[in-house]
Amino acid sequence: MANIKSAKKRILVNRTKAERNKSIKSGVKTAIKKVYAAIDAKDKAAATAALTEAISTIDKATTKGIYHKNNAARKVSRLTVAVNKMD
Question: Which of these, 30, 36, 44, 82, has the minimum number of CB atoms within 10 Å of its CB?
Answer without folding.
Answer: 30
